[in-house]
Amino acid sequence: MKLSQFKFNLPQNLIAQHPTENREDARMMVVHRDTGEIEHKYFKDILSYANAGDTFVINNTKVFPARLYGEKERTGAKIEVMLLRELDSESRLWDVLVDPARKIRIGNKLYFGENDDLVAEVIDNTTSRGRTLRFLFDGPHDEFKKVLMSLGKTPLPKEHGREVESCDVDDYQTVFASVEGSVAAPTAGMHFSKILMKKLLLADCNFAELTLHVSVGNFNPIEVEDLSKQRSFSEQMFVSQEACDIINKTVVDKKRLFVVGTTTLKALETIVMINGHVKPYDGWTNKFIFPPYEFSIGNALITNFHLPKSPMMMEVAAFAGYDLLMKAYKEAIKENYRFFTYGDAMLIL
């Protein structure tokens, strides 16, 4: 398919700036692939679509304060650094993105904090905006991480067009986040509250947790018209034997497998075998899913309403069917559904 096919006019006022006060009170559009029917519900109504033995597969990755603001040595030029991942804990090496990249060269020193609490040296160029930094810090690694995280800000996507607020520290996180490593939240999971999860467990539903650390690459603009030529980005993921056992039993019992979010769906499609079962995994995935695509696992998808031309929208279109998704998005705009990170939910059956 072509990139231009995923362009649509999204009114700016429909980009949600904050979540609903109670997570499960977000609206939920229910899309039926077999009939094309569209229902308008609330996320807490997910209880009426789940039955005993069904499983919700969730991504337990935890967002860390990955955005740093600092200055370049000598010139004092303001720079922004997005921490991606730690490469070597002993050497304090980090893979990062810098902005503006043209001003940041190998050998430059960068200073962070009001009192230059932390200093980093640029030691390598990795991509046009990518750099490898060595943080100059004497002391235990735990102390270094504490200082680094205290200087970092919540990496709320810039498409929100606002400054990060103190409430984002908690809002931009799922209630089941436990494994730190993401620079973006798995937003579909943000609709679950602890109370709602308890109700689903009491209804004899299951939860299976996996980890996929969401990359900032999800928000990089796609620059090729032919999507088959898009270079994908890699994301680290881990799936335990315990999670696989829960998922595989659901498949064998012919129960519904609710996949929570495009990151979880991507992870499952990475590890699914030809028999429709999944296997444990510890590694990386660079899977880029767009129509047409034949899914091997998952018969229900919980997702958000995504921005035009985003990889997440393309993956959802592959699951729902392109024409049906475009119909649903047109309906969502008409009905003033909230889009993006803090927006409303969509359940595709």
Structural class category? alpha/beta
Head-to-tail CA distance between termini: 23 Å
Stretches where pLDDT falls below 50 for ≥5 residues?
none
Shape: globular
- Biggest β-sheet, characterized? 9 strands, mixed
The SSE string, one letter per element, is EEEEEEEEEEHHEHEEHEHEEHHE
* Secondary structure tally, helices: 7
Strand order, biggest sheet?
Answer: 2-1-17-16-14-3-12-13-15
Specify Rg, calculated over alpha carbons: 21 Å
Name the helicity range.
10-25%
Q: Percent of residues in beta strands?
A: 25-35%
SS elements, strand count = 17
Average pLDDT value? 94
What report would you give on this structure?
Strands 2-1-17-16-14-3-12-13-15 form a 9-stranded mixed sheet. It contains 7 helices and 17 strands. α6 crosses α7 (322-334). It has 349 residues and is of the alpha/beta class. The mean pLDDT is 94. The longest helix has 13 residues, at 322-334.
